[in-house]
Design goal:
- By secondary structure, the chain is an alpha/beta fold.
- The chain has 6 helices and 8 strands.
- It has 2 domains: 69 residues, Orthogonal Bundle (Arc Repressor Mutant, subunit A); 107 residues, NAD(P)-binding Rossmann-like Domain (Rossmann fold, 3-Layer(aba) Sandwich), CATH 3.40.50.720.
- The protein has a 6-stranded mixed sheet with strand order 5-6-4-3-7-8, with helices on both faces. A two-stranded antiparallel ribbon has the order 1-2.
- Strand 7, helix 6 and strand 8 form a beta-alpha-beta unit.
- The longest helix is centred in the middle third of the chain and has 38 residues.
- The radius of gyration is 20 Å and the shape is elongated.
Length: 205
Amino acid sequence: MHLRDSEDIKTTRIMLGLLESVERDQAQTHRRMASDLGIALGLANAYLRHCINKGLVKVHKTPARRYTYFITPRGLAEKSRLTVKYLSHSFSFFRQARDDCGQLLRDARRRGLRRIVLAGCSDLAEIAIICTMESGVEIVAVVDARTKQKEFVNLPIVASYDDIRDKADGVMVTALKDPYSACHAAIAAFGRDRVLTPSLLNLHN
């Protein structure tokens, strides 16, 4: 799976979530939609305009100067199509991510990299954590300066490798957003030979 595929999955997820959100609550605000989808308000507005232009959603202005949104029959058909597409993508992603992470963790153990950190909070990071259960490798933390969270799947999140360098033997890149930068930062902190990169990220470090 290449980065373009990852972006396609993200777009599919947002579109599907938006259509489900409109179907569930016709009178919700743009800000509530954005919050439910976990995206910026401007991006939510752009996707909503796209849905309206494509005839997937209709908008009506109420006397109270508010707007209500209705999913159209075409929108319902598109929601069904996106559901199938998203589930198919998700299964394919999970299968490849599990295989990639499992192989990298086995390689890490053979090389003596018994304690690693993950570079980036993501679905890929969650799968990597699952894979460590039978690998003999311990994940000690997640490095991610983009999030305000303090923990990720019961692991501490740190903003910098300086906070964790003496506690880990290597890094696995798990960032799905800008993995190139995450990879370069990991190499700068631990050296090229101690950075593990799943093949689905299509990185050549």
